Amino acid sequence: MTTLAHSSSAPRKSAETEMSLADVLSTELRAAGVRDFSVDDTDRAAYTTDASLFRLVPRAIVFPHDEADVSHTLAIVRRLGVPITSRGAGTSIAGNAIGTGIILDFSRHMNEVLALDPEAQSAWVQAGCIHAHLQAQARPHGLRFGPDPSTHTRCTIGGMIGNNACGPRALGYGRTGDNILALIVMLVDGTVVTLDDTDSSETFPRLQEVIGRELGTIRTNLGTFSRQVSGYGLESLLPENDFDLRRAFAGTEGTWGIVLAAKMRLVKDPTHTSAVVLGYEDMVAAAHDAPLLKGFPVAACEGLDSRMLDRVIETKGADAVPHLPEGGGWLVVELTGEDEAELVDETKRLIRESDALDSAVLGTRAAAEVWGIRADGAGLVSRTPDGRDAHAGWEDSAVPVEHLGDYLRDLMDLLTEHGLWGIPYGHFGDGCLHMRVDFPLEDPDGPEVMRTFMVAATKLVARYGGSVSGEHGDGRARSELLRLIYPPAVLDLFKEVKELFDPQFLLNPGVIVDPDALSESLRLTQLPLREELPGTLVMAYEGESAGFASAVHRCTGVGKCRADSADSGGVMCPSYQATRDERHSTRGRARVLQEMVSGDLLDSSWQSPEVADALDLCLSCKACGTECPTGTDMSTYKAEVLHQSYKGRLRPMKHYSLGFLPQLARVITPLAPVVNRVSGLPGLTTVAKKLAGIDVRRSIPQFASTTFRKWWTNTDSTAAEVGPSTNTREVILFADSWSNHFAPRILAAAVAVLERAGVTVRVIDQTVCCGLPLISTGQLDAAKANLGATISALDATGDVPIVGVEPSCLATLKDDSQKLLADEASARVASRVQTFAQYLLSVGAELPKLDGVEALVQPHCHQSAIFGTAADKELLARTGAASRFLGGCCGLAGNFGVEEGHYDTSVAVAEVALLPALRDREASLREQALVREASLREQATIRDQSANGEEEDRTKSEGADQTRVVLADGYSCRTQIADLSDAQGVSLPELLAWGWGLEPTR
What we know:
Blueprint: H1 15-32, E1 37-38, H2 41-46, E2 60-62, H3 67-80, E3 84-87, E4 102-105, E5 113-117, E6 122-126, H4 131-138, E7 143-144, H5 157-163, H6 170-173, E8 180-186, E9 192-195, H7 205-213, H8 215-221, H9 245-248, E10 258-265, E11 267-268, E12 272-280, H10 283-289, E13 298-305, H11 306-316, E14 329-337, H12 340-353, E15 358-362, H13 364-375, H14 377-380, E16 397-398, H15 404-417, E17 432-433, H16 446-463, H17 475-478, H18 482-485, H19 488-501, H20 548-551, H21 574-579, H22 586-598, H23 609-616, H24 623-627, H25 634-646, H26 653-659, H27 661-668, H28 672-678, H29 682-692, H30 708-720, E18 729-734, H31 737-742, H32 744-756, E19 759-762, H33 772-776, H34 780-795, E20 802-804, H35 807-820, H36 824-832, E21 833-834, H37 836-842, E22 853-857, H38 861-866, H39 870-879, E23 882-885, H40 903-910, H41 914-944, H42 949-958, E24 963-967, H43 971-980, E25 985-986, H44 988-996
Parallel strand pairs: 2-4, 3-4, 18-19, 18-20, 20-21, 22-23, 22-24, 24-25
Antiparallel strand pairs: 1-2, 5-6, 6-10, 7-11, 8-9, 8-10, 12-14, 12-15, 13-14, 16-17
Helix pairs in contact: 1-3, 10-15, 15-16, 22-23, 30-32, 32-44, 34-36, 35-36, 41-42
């Protein structure tokens, strides 16, 4: 078969040939009435890979709405002989969801829960239904879908069926295949069949004949232990298993047919759970203890290496990791039961009978944090301590659990023997081991190093009666290795069965049967593959061997950027949440950038139109830099691309008008009253917005007639006459340009609160801003000059803490300065920067009582990414205020939502979390008003009936209002709230000043 081999020695297909076939497919698909498809180079680039090492350029991507779209597409496939590959969320680690023909992406349209029957404990779902969506539908009924891969927030049920996915709780609930009640499948000839618990032999008599002939081969070699996922699960077709074709389909990786819908078994959520962590000297010792769990009511048991937690601490700080028992490796165990007392006893017995050095029973919050770290495992182990990439490939081996300890010991020795590195973790309870290995794929002999190790590791796992795949499928990573674990008779049987379903090998070819070589089509065989892009990089890419070119390859494709994370406080990736378009996810953009630096589909140019298209809707929210397990920092990459692509060229007007707005503000402020009046003239304002590249639906900010700096200068001299301060604490208040010119009241409120707390406030005489608008528009030379001057001024103030009121500007000082300046001064300043809440808590400041205040909080996305919101939550809790923190981005994101062409996306982003919450708040306020009105009528009735005063006072008390505020520290967040709702946002300093009854007059 032909593949697009992506290696330094492989010939590259011409773009002309690729586009010719793409054009033919476009014509055919349009004529057939397929409603949603793309042959656009940007989309094709985004779909060149999944979460694997492999790269295959598709000719077209189809997003089917229904069975008819799939049928029409499959007819074209048969007529033209073009291969077709089914895809869910594209989180396949073995290269199962990529191909050189048509990609069928079910996640965009065919993603619904069709029916859920609580009594029967079952649900019909479409192939593209996200696992987390099914869980959310089942949860109100006390039900859940049992298996839960680490990618459960974005993986699809169809994809899980394709790989026979498992996850941590497969130990308690079985694999995906064990939970299939029925399937609706389209075969390669377009026939649609329903596979359920009825006998399928009459529909597939040839298959039954083949199985009947090979019963001994199947019984001897297949189905020997729970995690034997390699190859086809033909053991399900044995007579003793009732020729169960629906379950045999699990793990076929789209090579037998196309799953359209599935009826899945649901199980009851356990009444009680207990989370135990057992600490061991190392991971080998932990693995040796795993067989102990067979005698306990265990739903999940995961192996966790201490080095994974080190990575979390490195990126998110020590507070992101709960306290765990002593040890270099842990078993994280979840026990379940219906009787709480019995579960407590079983938990104690497990600890007592284990060989652990130390142990701990986790509370609910700590357990959730540990499971979250485990879920991010693939990303956390994707880099070595010295910054080299660690890759998938040998990331899914499995052995019977009683052999896990010995196998892991020998595997670690094998790594050492080959001069390689890897961190083991995974589903230790049922013998499945995950690991990423630092194969030197950027070296000329890298693919051969990988192949040599993989062959040796396969022989090792075979000695222990194991499988090269435990839940991820074989894909392109391991299909070639099946010959080392199965005898020829099994491989011949796999091929014979494949040919019954797909005689022309159109369905996901290159996988399982007649496999591609494992070192073929690697996307990282040499980096970069072509001449370096022109220009000197401006941003510092610490730890990157090839700077920007290797940084964009950080993305391993785990797809966390596609998850609906707003409900849990996440932000990434707002543009994907708004558009549901892969090209507008962090992963999709990374793939396009990878093509630009080391592919052959796109032009190797900073001015690539496909790259500009992919980056256009990036909000530069910074969330991917910290929420992505691999730290794929798209806001930095976007700034670099914009800088390089416009260097020496005329830029769009919006770059000048918005990028230099802080500088313009200093010029305009003396004329503030006039400018504000003129900005209210509709016709003139519309023309001005169009000229400036601003969407006409956006409001123009009102300039303050008195800036904070002017107020500070006037009041500072007055304060000095009172005499020397008796305060023992001192802080630098960073007077950012936005607050100074547009919201000076917030800086003044901050001064009042800080001085009330006994802190001496200093404001530096700094005349330039942090440069964030220049960074986000890619004007990095000017940004570097602005930020450098600001850092120098702040660095000259000694070691005094630096606080501010605008989160985006603080994040620039904390984060961007170290990438753009990368010097000792920026590092010193960054170490001093704190949010307002962090500082108040650090000095033990007395806080006002805000009982009765309800705060709906929209954190700035830069604060969420760089500082987190823990301090704000703790501070508000201490005041007695009730708070609800929203996830997701507000959608304005600095200049993004203001720019022409971004308004609709900006609003769509706000619809993810902010606008629904504001509407709920408004409805609640209306309801509260109705209750108050009813209470007043009741009081009037009581008075008319001459009720006593005590009763009247009680009624008045019951009708008392609570104070409800929308708390938003970010200027852009408050602007978005004001533009799209009737609410007005207030900042934390304003709320605290109000609580103290302070007037910012000093």
